[in-house]
Write a structure and sequence with these properties.
Elements: E1 2-8, H1 10-13, H2 20-31, E2 35-42, H3 46-59, E3 62-66, H4 77-84, E4 89-91, H5 93-106, H6 112-116, E5 119-121, E6 125-127, E7 136-141, E8 144-149, H7 153-171, E9 176-184, H8 189-195, H9 197-201, E10 207-214, E11 217-226, H10 229-246, E12 251-254, H11 259-270, E13 274-278, H12 284-290, E14 299-304, H13 308-313, H14 319-325, H15 330-344, E15 348-354, E16 369-375, E17 380-386, H16 391-413
Parallel strand pairs: 1-2, 1-3, 3-8, 13-14, 13-15
Antiparallel strand pairs: 4-5, 6-7, 7-8, 9-11, 9-12, 10-11, 15-16, 16-17
Helix pairs in contact: 2-7, 3-4, 11-16
């Protein structure tokens, strides 16, 4: 069983809006055992819509369409669907009643444009929209199912989960598809691939591995398909256990885990606290930690010590250390870590100092040179990294590397 997703909207093609709808829909289809062959974004033009529908129907069993169903003149999807399915718009009383209820709850008055939302192609099955005025529409043509839905995520998502996926599951005997993602930190993609090559080569034929790199993290996604969901889950769990024996220090979590959530859970469980002293990361580590609800339980505060003056006056970094070794050095970052730990009276602390770029590098300390220090209840240590020349990537890599260093130390003392 195969599918295609068509996203309609000029805003998607000029970069004004990111097409998050398509990725979310693809995830839901995959979970239901329906393979996505293609995702296409097209403009709000009749010719493009007709062409995309025709091509999708030649390649896939199911075509999901979002966008272009608003009440204004630039939304032409309904009229174009009528042309494609050789039908006409017809006023639907059930859809209109839903619109009236929705407007009544919001205390709004229905105008003619709103009323036109109840006009839908005569040969479609309407899909109720509990969060907006534009209904979804289910069509069938030449044994292909087409489903058109609003582009507003808040309106589209319930249609997918409450109606479209259950209806497709009733009609088709789809295979089970399982995905598990192993999250790693601390090794570049090429080296990681070499490290786990034997394991990868020994994977069963029905399990596929994909490398999904992002700054500071490599995600390893295992995908398995078959008839028995439980067997697939057991099969993937077995392979993950084997991988854990090969790279135990690199794996920090699975699927939607984040380093900062994992750290928060560890600190909360142990009744411990952390603080940060950040130079090159500019408070980004503190931002990640505090993005978790309830982080005030374990995060006490941060000092963004961008200047040497702040390093000295707030974090008690020795002036001589700055003169003799420079701000980007082992000596200074260790003093920063100790200084913030003492100032905020925390169990752990992180400190970063580096040359994020694109300027500021020297022959001895090129752009990307970064020192990270961790203070624990028992020791302080620092490690040097060379992250590259791209500023934002350097900041992300530094933050995630520092968090993983902290995670390892908390786990050791857990």
């Amino acid at each position: 069983m195969t599918s295609e997703i068509i996203s309609i909207g000029d805003e998607l093609l000029i970069g004004q809006v990111v097409n998050t709808n398509a990725s979310w829909m693809a995830e839901q289809l995959n979970r239901a055992g329906i393979k996505v062959n293609q995702v296409t974004a097209i403009s709000d033009q009749r010719e493009h819509i007709l062409s995309a529908l025709e091509e999708a129907g030649m390649k896939s069993d199911i075509v999901l369409i979002t966008g272009g169903l608003g009440p204004t003149k630039d939304d032409i999807t309904k009229q174009t669907l009528c042309e494609f399915f050789n039908t006409k718009l017809k006023f639907n009383e059930e859809v209109f009643e839903n619109i009236k209820k929705l407007f009544g709850k919001r205390g709004l008055i229905i105008n003619e444009l709103n009323k036109k939302q109840a006009e839908i192609p005569k040969n479609c099955i309407p899909i109720k929209n509990n969060n907006g005025t534009a209904p979804g529409m289910w069509f069938e043509k030449d044994d292909i199912i087409y489903v058109s839905m609003p582009g507003v995520p808040f309106e589209m998502k319930p249609m997918i989960t409450d109606f479209v996926i259950p209806e497709l599951s009733k009609r088709f005997n789809t295979p089970a598809i399982i995905h598990r993602t192993i999250l790693t930190q601390g090794m570049p993609e090429s080296l990681l691939a070499s490290e786990i090559e034997s394991w990868e080569n020994s994977l069963p034929a029905n399990i596929k591995l994909a490398y999904l790199p992002q700054p500071g993290i490599i995600r390893l996604r295992l995908s398995a398909s078959g008839k028995n969901k439980t067997e697939l889950e057991n099969q993937i769990s077995y392979e993950i256990k084997k991988l854990n024996k090969i790279i135990p220090d690199l794996i920090f979590g699975y699927d939607n885990d984040t380093l900062y959530e994992i750290i928060g859970n560890l600190l909360r469980k142990n009744g411990q606290t952390v603080s940060t002293a950040e130079s090159c990361t500019g408070g980004y580590i503190a931002h990640l930690i505090t993005s978790v609800p309830g982080s005030s339980d374990y995060f006490k505060g941060s000092v963004v010590a961008y200047s040497n003056e702040i390093k000295e006056n707030i974090l008690s970094v020795n002036h001589k250390s700055l003169i003799d070794h420079g701000a980007v050095s082992k000596e200074v970052v260790i003093e920063m870590a100790r200084g913030v730990q003492q100032k905020f009276n925390t169990d752990y602390s992180i400190a970063t100092s580096g040359i994020a770029g694109p300027g500021g590098g020297t022959d001895k300390k090129p752009v990307g040179t970064t020192w990270i220090a961790i203070t624990t209840p028992f020791k302080t240590f620092a490690k040097k990294f060379q992250f590259g020349e791209h500023r934002q990537r350097n900041i992300s890599k530094t933050a995630l590397t520092a968090l993983n260093m902290l995670r390892k130390e908390i786990s050791k003392n857990d």
